[in-house]
Design brief:
Blueprint lengths: L1 E9 L4 H13 L6 H22 L7 E9 L3 E8 L7 H4 L16 H8 L2 E7 L3 E9 L9
Antiparallel strand pairs: 1-2, 2-3, 3-5, 4-5
Helix pairs in contact: 1-2, 2-4
């Protein structure tokens, strides 16, 4: 059995925390460890922030889309998508410390964090059409300390 949730919201920075908490709440039914939950929340935060800041260039008319699929075997699949400006060179964008917004004091570590916290990450992007992140994490059999 699998369970799925879809979410969409305006590309406003204040909605980043909404996305993070909503995804975390949905995932708790798999009883992840606190570390796993924190890692997934961090990844959602990074991906949504990238969509808002880079994809839509802080244009609040954009929409961020998230799909979460939970599998009975403890696999969590995330899809986070924007219809923004896209990424011209994904390999370059994934390099640690690379940022297109140094004036906004962006660290350029978003993709690095996502790659370290998730088991699989795939990025599809088309210039002027947007970017989609596909992320997968295999949860351990451990139980969370609290739900």
């Amino acid at each position: 059995m699998k369970n799925q949730m879809n979410l969409q919201f305006s590309a406003l920075s204040q909605n980043e925390s909404f996305a993070r908490v909503t995804v975390a709440s949905f995932i708790t039914q798999l009883d992840p460890t606190m570390d796993e939950l924190t890692e997934i929340k961090t990844v959602v935060s990074e991906a949504v922030t990238n969509a808002i800041i880079h994809g839509y260039e802080s244009n609040s008319d954009g929409v961020v889309y998230i799909s979460v699929t939970l599998h009975e075997d403890g696999v969590v699949e995330l899809m986070i998508r924007d219809e923004g400006i896209g990424i011209d060179n994904v390999d370059e964008a994934k390099q640690p410390l690379y940022t297109t917004k140094p004036d906004l004091e962006r660290s350029g570590m978003g993709f690095t964090i996502m790659e370290n916290f998730m088991d699989e990450i795939r990025v599809e992007s088309t210039v002027l059409e947007g970017t989609t992140l596909y992320l997968k994490k295999h949860l351990t059999n451990s139980k969370a300390l609290c739900n």
